[in-house]
Amino acid sequence: MTHKIAVLPGDGIGPEIVDQAVKVIDCLQRELGWQVELEHAPVGGAGIDQAGQPLPDATLRLAQAADAILLGAVGGPKWEKRDIAVRPEKGLLGLRSELQLFANLRPALLYPQLEHASTLKPAVVSGLDIMIIRELTGDIYFGKPRGVRILENGERQGFNTMVYAEHEIERIGRVAFESALKRGKRVCSVDKANVLETTELWREVMTRVAKDYPTVQLSHMYVDNAAMQLVRAPKQFDVMVTGNMFGDILSDCAAMLTGSIGMLPSASLDSHAKGMYEPIHGSAPDIAGKGVANPLATILSVAMMMRYTFNDVRLANVIEASVQDVLVEGLRTADIYTAGTRKVGTEEMGDAVVAALIRNVWRTETGGAPDTDKRCMREGGLTNEID
Ligand code: IPM
Ligand code: MG
């Protein structure tokens, strides 16, 4: 079976980091005969420049036809003056809603080697492993009415609508409880039920859904407190589930616990596990084209793609193990650099992950050169350290 992946590099550092992730996919193809068809298309600012809109029709069709989508990042100062309805971000939001990618998984995992890269004390973050589950196709992001109107006195007034239907809350709740079953069996649902009716309903539905998962412990937290707890004592969390807006904010906050937002991958899934995979960071126009961006979040997004869409836990594990290997080797991009490590650029980091991947894939008994008879992945026997 050929796996079809739509590759949408987007803007800013998007193309540079996506190139590194593509190297990883190419490596799986070369070394393991993993059958894949990659097709590139523009989105965001690149979509505007090349086809006149942030989500060109051809890009949407390609994304719809693919099994999975690999996305870089969208946006940049070049397009900031455009009307909000036709800005690069609309390309990303359009993909999420057109493809019904309602479940956004954002794992905040701290690699032990990066304990000192976080701005928080190592004792606060070491061992951190949180799964943030953000609802992605509802809430104030998509709610109507929205816009800017002129009041009677001539003053302008902006308005957006926070909305959630019960079924939307229930389905994201189920994703969170299912995820918790495979992890620490705890779900913290984040809302603002003391002020907003929408999230009062959210809390009620979460409580109802929890009854179907008696082995999972559900707690509720107001979003302001959740933001505080994330920097005060983040290890108290296992799975956090929240709406689109709160999830956007809290996941950036959680990202910094892991050392850098350049480390956080994400999966956006529909109800059939078709998914779009992207780093959670943005297009970082200030460093675009300089070859210094961290490609690890994008490479880790490919690992998530293996796990969630292609159902290949072993490939996911081997990619994650290879990322860990380069960190153990002491390689760091600027965003995660600390004294005593070696600063490398985007390309060098990508190449190092590929080299580690080849080593992990070609594990031989002698530890020597590749041997066609001992393709451990094909034989189905990965080493313990990456299992
Ligand atoms: C994210 C981003 C996007 C969002 C932007 C680029 C539209 O911040 O994926 O978190 O707000 O969802
Ligand atoms: Mg965000």
Measured by DSSP, the beta-strand proportion falls in 15-25%
Based on Cα principal axes, name the global outline: globular
Uncertain runs are: 368-387
Largest sheet: 10 strands, mixed
> Using only CA atoms, what is the Rg?
21 Å
Order of strands in the sheet with most strands: 2-1-3-12-11-4-5-10-8-9
Average pLDDT, rounded to a whole number, is 92
- Estimate the helix proportion, in percent: 25-40%
Structure description:
This protein is an alpha/beta fold and 387 residues long. It contains 13 helices and 14 strands. Strands 2-1-3-12-11-4-5-10-8-9 form a 10-stranded mixed beta sheet, sandwiched between helices. Strands 6-7 form a two-stranded antiparallel ribbon. Strands 13-14 form a two-stranded parallel ribbon. The C terminus is likely disordered. Bound molecules: 3-isopropylmalic acid (IPM) and magnesium ion (MG). The site of magnesium ion has 2 residues, from helix 9.
List the helices and strands and how they pair.
Layout: E1 3-10, H1 14-32, E2 36-40, H2 45-51, H3 57-65, E3 68-73, H4 89-98, E4 103-109, H5 122-125, E5 129-135, E6 147-150, E7 156-159, H6 166-181, E8 186-191, H7 197-210, E9 217-222, H8 223-232, E10 239-242, H9 244-257, E11 267-269, E12 275-277, H10 296-308, H11 313-328, E13 331-332, E14 342-343, H12 346-361, H13 376-379
Parallel strand pairs: 1-2, 1-3, 3-12, 5-10, 8-9, 8-10, 13-14
Antiparallel strand pairs: 4-5, 4-11, 6-7, 11-12
Bound molecules: 3-isopropylmalic acid and magnesium ion.
Summarize the structure.
Residues 368-387 have low confidence and may be disordered.
